[in-house]
Design a protein that fits this description.
The complex is a heterodimer.
Chain A lengths: L5 H7 L2 E4 L5 E4 L2 E4 L5 H9 L10 E3 L17 H17 L2 E2 L10 H8 L7 E4 L13 E4 L2 H10 L1 E4 L3 E8 L8 H12 L7 E6 L1 H4 L3 H9 L8 E3 L4 H7 L8 H11 L12 E6 L6 E3 L7 E3 L13 H14 L14 E4 L7 H11 L10 E4 L4 H9 L2 H8 L2 E2 L20 E4 L14 E4 L2 H10 L9
Parallel strand pairs in A: 3-4, 3-6, 4-5, 6-7, 9-10, 9-12, 10-11, 15-16, 15-18, 16-17, 18-19
Antiparallel strand pairs in A: 1-2, 2-8, 13-14
Chain B lengths: L5 E8 L7 H4 L19 H4 L31 E3 L12 H9 L3 E4 L4 H8 L4 E4 L2 H13 L4 E5 L4 E3 L5 E3 L4 H9 L3 H6 L2 H14 L10
Parallel strand pairs in B: 1-2, 2-3, 3-4
Antiparallel strand pairs in B: 1-5, 5-6, 6-7
The chains are: A alpha/beta, B alpha/beta.
Chain lengths: 467, 216
């Protein structure tokens, strides 16, 4: 008999009940709540006269609607404001801890969970947000859910699930200079496709993954959903444990020792069998730039916009043609010749301190190109912002001509006032290049923070390795 | 939740792969704190030529005559025919809410994104998976014949074409049962309350830090 995968170990530790057909009632340790996908869940609870089973397992934060400019006047848009006020009222009514908009700990839900030690190895973590896969970086089973399931978790602390298939994505070797976790993520999606992970839980392994910081691992697991996988994960190692230690909600004393003893078992056994294994050579991964309207429409910075005539199927030819039309691109154009109008450095994918350091190191002593209308840096949380300011990163950005903003989801999905105008082209460190994602008619190219900073200064995409 | 048993419905074909939930219901409509009323903004950016914002009167909008939902022949459709990886991207349940509010009760596609697929079952929508070659054929039949309808029988797990062809589909037994009976998940789960309590008691011993609940 073969050993267990990390997924199986996490699953087994959370089984409450199994139906005859294998449908499992799975216990949820941590429930992250934000303002967009929770109001109807709270309303449902109230209508059924139910109360949350464990308020201590939930934590709430407004992030999607919050302004990234001056907050002293609150939220200008009355509909956004009502949504945030509704979260405040629901948390107050039920006694759920909330990091409100004026709290230094406020930020993007997937940044603050790990930052506060609310996300711990071995946990099941859910949130009404697909990028919950981020938390799998800690050797946790973390996945996004809909609002009905948000209500279900509030009421029962459990979810009905069936085990996923397992896929090991093994990245061996050493990344080249200027190549980051974001490039690994995009290269994987380019390899397996945006639906390649559907039905699977992904585990990222291999020497290149073990060499990543926690920030890098979070970027990678964050993008698992863009490969179609609800969950992505990385085994626990010393890097994980060092990151978690001393965080506000991390265990201490005897509980810490007890926890670490269990966490050290949270890796796939050497003889574990996966349903699928994909291997990538880290040394061959180059800086990535998406050219289309799906994250799988990606190439290297040295590449060219592809020709739909070369598409592998009729359906794809149709999609590529439509994507090029939407993106305003001609087949054959070198990626490095595509100019950008705006640059966005932020989002739950790339707004942590390491991301900002990476971008600042490229922007240092340079200026945003005159053709770039707006280059903005949106830290992932108030604490990331504070740390960046201690390190002087804000000054580097501001001197280069970037705007230094308040934390939130911002222009990743443009629910607040930060957005692209029709036809504007953006180098973005976010996760989705879908039509209209950053504003109706906006054109998104996904890149790493270093590549975004380099594009801001050059005015077009440029190979950060040659900067 | 509304039951799903039998459906005989007009079919609208949406011939695009990887239709994401941002396309199904754009972000500006997610600011609502209600569960209903998303139908007029289903596929908003494809369906209208003007930019949509919450609170706009649909009667004053400019429909895009080239978008399939606006073709008069598809008015009143309740079955959506779609391509691979339908519903990818964001977990927003507003996507099935918008489809349901518009009148879509069943979707037929070769594959779906996991979270969207799951969300459909919570809202009385049946997402049917059929082989890509079969879906391709249904697209051709649907586009060729105005008024093309399909009959769906969840109990028997069949889709019947106007030509009398019967196509079988798979669906998870538990989900089928809940959809057929319109059952509330939470009510069913609470029947397991003793087991949840027993699990919690055991975990409090094994992993007490998971229950400390506050800053350490």
């Amino acid at each position: 008999m073969s050993g267990l995968t990390l997924f199986q170990k996490l699953w087994d530790a959370h089984v409450v009940h199994v139906e005859a057909d294998g449908t499992t009632l799975l216990y949820i340790d941590r429930h992250l709540v934000h303002e967009v996908t929770s109001p109807q869940a709270f309303e449902g609870l109230k209508l059924a006269q139910r109360t949350p089973r464990r308020v201590d397992a939930a934590i709430a934060v407004p992030d999607h609607n919050v302004p990234t400019t001056d907050r002293s006047q609150g939220i200008a848009d009355p509909i956004s404001r009502l949504q945030v006020e509704t979260l405040d009222a629901n948390c107050a009514e039920f006694g759920i801890t909330e990091f409100k908009m004026d709290d230094i700990r406020q930020g993007i839900v997937h940044v603050i969970g790990p930052e506060e030690g609310l996300t711990l190895p071995g946990m099941t973590v859910v949130c009404g947000d697909s990028h919950t896969s981020t938390h799998g970086a800690f050797g946790a089973l973390a996945f996004g859910i809909g609002t009905s399931e948000v209500e279900h978790v509030l009421a029962t602390q459990c979810l009905w699930q069936k085990p996923s298939k397992t896929m090991l994505v093994k990245v061996e070797g050493t990344l080249g200079k200027g190549v980051t976790a974001k490039d690994i993520a995009l290269a994987i999606i380019g390899e397996i496709g945006t639906a390649g992970g559907t039905g699977y839980a992904l585990e990222f392994g291999g020497s290149a993954i073990r060499a990543l910081s926690m920030e890098g691992r979070m970027t990678l697991c964050n993008m698992a959903i863009e490969a179609g996988a609800r969950a992505g994960m990385v085994a626990v190692d010393q890097t994980t444990i060092d990151y978690v230690k001393g965080r506000p909600y991390s265990p201490r004393g005897a509980a810490w020792d007890q926890a670490v003893a269990w966490w050290n078992t949270l890796h796939s056994d050497a003889d574990a069998a996966f349903d699928r294994v994909v291997e990538l050579d880290a040394a061959k991964i180059e800086p990535q730039v998406t050219w289309g309207t799906s994250p799988e429409m990606v190439t290297t910075v040295g590449g060219r916009v592809p020709d739909p005539a070369d598409a592998p199927s009729e359906v794809k030819r149709h999609d590529w043609t439509r994507a090029l039309e939407y993106m305003g691109l001609q087949a054959g154009t070198p990626i490095a010749e595509i100019p950008v109008d705006k640059v966005f450095i932020g989002s739950c994918t790339n707004s942590r301190i390491e991301d900002l350091r990476e971008a600042a190191s490229v922007a240092k002593g340079r200026k945003v190109a005159p053709n770039v209308k707006l280059a903005m840096v949106v830290p992932g949380s108030g604490l990331v912002k504070q740390q960046a300011e201690v390190e002087g990163l804000d000054k580097i950005f501001v001197e280069a001509g970037f705007e230094w903003r308040e934390p939130g989801c911002s222009m990743c999905l443009a629910m607040n006032a930060d957005r692209l105008e029709p036809g504007e082209r953006c180098a973005s460190t976010s996760n989705r290049n879908f039509e209209g994602r950053q504003g109706q008619g906006g054109r998104t190219h996904l890149v790493s923070p270093a590549m975004a900073a380099a594009a801001a200064c050059a005015g077009h995409f440029v190979d950060v390795r040659k900067e | 939740m509304r039951k799903f048993t039998l459906l005989d419905g007009l079919v609208v074909p949406l011939d695009r792969a990887n239709v994401d939930t941002d396309a199904i219901i754009p972000k500006q409509f997610l600011k609502s704190i209600k569960r209903a009323g998303f139908g007029p903004n289903l596929f908003d950016e494809w369906r209208y030529l003007d930019h949509g914002e919450p609170g706009m009167d649909p009667a004053t909008r400019q429909p895009n005559p080239e978008f399939v939902l606006n073709f008069p022949r598809y008015r009143g459709a309740s079955v959506l025919l779609a391509r691979d990886n339908f519903g990818c991207g964001s977990s927003r349940e507003h996507a099935p809410w918008a489809l349901e509010d518009y009148g879509i009760r069943a979707i037929i596609a070769p594959s779906y994104a996991d979270i969207f697929y799951n969300n459909c079952f919570k809202n009385g929508i049946l997402p049917i998976v059929l082989d890509a070659a079969v879906v391709e054929r249904l697209f051709r039949e649907c586009e060729a014949a105005e008024g093309y309808r399909l009959s769906i029988d969840l109990e028997k797990q069949t889709v019947t074409t106007p030509g009398g062809e019967v196509l079988a589909f798979e669906v998870d037994g538990g989900r089928k049962h809940r959809l057929l009976n319109g059952l509330d998940d939470i009510g069913l789960t609470l029947l397991q309350a003793d087991k949840i309590k027993a699990y919690e008691e055991r975990r409090k011993q094994e992993a007490p830090w998971l229950f400390s609940g506050s800053q350490q």
